[in-house]
Every structure is written in C-alpha cells, then in structure tokens.
Amino acid sequence: MTQEQPHTMREEILINVTPQETRVATLENGMLQEIYVERVKNKGIVGNIYVGKVVRVLPGMQAAFVDIGLERTAFLHARDLQARTDESPQLQQMDTETNIVSLVSEGQDIVVQVVKDPLGTKGARLSSQISIPSRNLVYLPNNDYMGVSQRIQEPGTRERLMEALNRLKGEIGASGGFIVRTAGETALEEEIFSDMQFLIRVWEKVRSRRKGGKVPALLHTSLPLAMRTVRDLVWQKVKKIRIDSKETFELVSNFARELMPDALERIEHYPGGRPIFDLYDVEEEIQRALQKRVPLKSGGYLIIDQTEAMTTVDVNTGSFVGARNLEETIFKTNLEAAATLAHQLRVRNLGGIIIVDFIDMGVDDHKEQVMRTLERELAKDRTKTQVNDMSALGLVEITRKRTSESLERLLTEACPACSGRGIQKTAETTCYEIFREILREARQFDAEKYLVVASPAVIELLQEEESTGLADLQDFIRKSIHLKVEPSFHQEQYEVVLM
C-alpha cells in the first residue's frame, strides 16, 4: 500500500551554513523529522543533466553503463530510456518489450539526468526522461504528458489547473509537457505562466551547452540545498525558515522574492550567538540517530542494523513490565515501536528494503492496530513508502524510495579496526594467530630470533597468561621470541619481524 503525505502538520525549517557544508533540519512541534546535509566536497548530483558516452551495453541486464565524467560509470536501465522514432524527432516512452540494444550502442552520446546519487560501491542511476522542476511545475522537455500531482485530490482544483496548464502552454507556444506540483495547488495563472517561461529558458541553456561538443560534460546543475529547501519544502504549513548565515539568508530571500514571494515573510535570519542546531537540540538528535539502539519511552527499545542489502529492525520489550499481562506489554511495545520506527526512517533517511521484526502477538486485533499505526505514521513521510502485510512470524517488509545516502553512510565510515563488523577478535585469539604465524615463518626462514609487535592488551597477555605457551613455542623452534608494545596498534593488529 502506497502512503501519501497529509497536509495537517505545522513545521519549522532550520538552515545551518558553514563554508564546508549546509545542513537543513525540518521540525514538527519542535521535534526533528528530517535532516539534509550537503557538503562542498561531495555535493549531491540528483537532478544534474549531463551529456555522456555509453561505454558498455548489457543486454542480459537490459542496461547500459554511461561515462558522465564521474569516478564511477553511471547506470542506465532500459525502462529509464526513451526511444526516438523516425516519424518524429520527439522522444517517446519506450515499449517495455523493446531491447536495449535497439536503443543505445557503445560509443553513443546521450543526454541523461541523475535520478539517484552514487551509493556505496554503486554508480549514479540515470534516466533519459529529463524533468526540470520549478516552484509550481515540472517541465518534461522530451515528453508531451500534461498532468496534475496526484496529491492534489479536489476534482474542481484539478480541472482548473489542467485547463490553465493546457491553455497557457498553447499561448506560450511551448513544446514538451508540464506537471503541476503539489506546491502549485493554489498557484495563480500568472505564477504558472511565469514558471513555464523560466523552465523553457533553463532548457534552452541546456541545449546551447550541449552544442559545445565536449563529452562527457555537465549541462545543468541542481540548485544548492538552501534554495531547494525553500522551493520544495515550504508549504503553507511551514511557519518559519530560520537561516544562521546572513549571506545565505540574502540569497534565499532574493530567490524567494523572484519565484515564490508568498514565502518571503516566513524567511528570517537567526543572528544568535548559540548555534541554531544546539538551540533546538538538533545536534543531540543527530548523534542519537547514529546509534543502533533506539530507546522507547515505555522501557523497550529498537535495534536498527543497516547493511548494504537491507535494514533490519528488531523490537524488544526491555524493562517494560507496566501492563497487566505479557500480551498487553507486547502490544503496547509494538504500538510505540511502530510510531518510533516511522520517525527513525525519516531522521536517518533509511531507504531500500526495511525488515521489521515485531514481537510476536497472539491477538489478531492487536496485529491490525499495530499495522494501522505504522501505516498512519508512515503517511507523514515525504518519501514514497510501501508496506506489506505482517507475516505469521511478525515480520513486516517496508520499501522506502532511496535517492541519496542515509545519514549513517553520510556522516560515518567503517571502523578501520573491525572493518564495519562491529566486533573485534579477542586478545587471546590474536595471541594464537601470532603463535601460528611464528611457526609458519620458522618453517620457511632461518631467522636468529623473532620480534612480536602488538597492542598493549596482546603483549600483556603474552607476558602473563600465555607466557607458558610462548616459552613452549621458543623451545619448539629453538629460537628466542622478543615482545614489543605498539600503542597505536588495535587489538587485531600485529607484526612478526625476523631478526
């Protein structure tokens, strides 16, 4: 079941700017809902338009790899391609049965748009179905489709917008298609007309840059995060947009004055001495969002494990024993977990497949109430989510659209000691590995003596509890073994030096 966002929440938006990065936090009733981070060194590229070169076509995958000038080649699937017909230079949606080899070939130049940032070891995801957004509209320069956002549901409003869209497109003589965004629900005709003119000018610039001849090349870049925030997130329910940088405040204000003057009075500069994210406890919330364990008010907790393939969430009762009986305890814990989980998905920006292991419930009505709670809370999510029914084992599969790195992947890296395993070998295990390594070296080389360099914990174990084993090994190989502490070594790290 696909979730839609309700329009009843009242929000604030905080924008924190430093020379190195911009961070945006959305708050609902003072509680952090979403965090967006854009760093100068690795700015996201979703929405960027490139002319690239097809370097490999894979018929078995119905996909192609395209060089758009990034470190890794980008991925273009057949369903994200459009086929050019002989009858018309206009690009048309390809038939699902069309083979990719009839659409692209190695060495071919192609104009594409990034729809997903590079994630982990995967390159960016591309589409040749170009779309350029403004405040009220999305422009489809290679497609004649005309439409209104599905989130605008009132029939009279939809009819009014469609009529205006078609008439204004005819007046301006534009090619391509237009879709009215949710933010355009109350837009006046002159605002829609102004957006059309703006989008056509943007596309003309893209086309002129395409004629430059260089391949691969960047033709169009998306707006900076602060401007995108105002364009995409500032709905009527947003009360204030507070920006702690005077320079960015002025840039955003000028942007709003030109494209969305109705938002101008809600944008304000925060000049306070205390960091704005500290003032609203956002920094503390971010740190909590990087922890695996999420406490519940009842005493239960969630364990959130993010892997390359999926995210798993385990629900536990913990110390919650306040209900009348065990079934009631489990039910209340699962209800709270459902609401907390939906919030954590937004804050952590978790995408892809999420498997939730609720505590087993014996009452069908309890299961239904937990699922309704989960669906209701997920409906607040701006990102598209889908929920499957609870299995007999209490497992629920959620899919959430992923277009950028999660907060954890963005702000952290794998531990160099454990390589992201979250565990390390015991000092005892490392000692026995050292013994085996010395035996291996003794059989291959005729050294006079050996020096073992290891962490303090391992050397201490070799000198005390494992001293007998170390003495037996020296007798066996008839060579002396010396020990040296290296404080910078982690517990699994060691060196056996032949002397």
Q: How does this structure look, described?
A:
By secondary structure, the chain is of the alpha+beta class. The chain has helices at residues 155-172, 189-210, 225-233, 246-259, 276-279, 282-288, 326-348, 364-378, 407-411, 427-444, 456-463, 467-477; strands at residues 11-17, 21-28, 31-39, 49-58, 63-67, 74-77, 82-84, 91-93, 109-116, 125-127, 132-133, 137-140, 146-148, 177-180, 217-220, 238-243, 267-269, 293-295, 301-306, 311-316, 352-357, 385-387, 395-400, 449-454, 480-485, 494-498. Strands 18-19-20-21-23-22 form a six-stranded mixed beta sheet, covered by helices on one side. The chain has a five-stranded mixed beta sheet with strand order 3-2-1-16-17, sandwiched between helices. The protein has a five-stranded mixed β-barrel with strand order 4-5-6-10-9. The protein is globular. Residues 1-8 and 83-96 have low confidence and may be disordered.
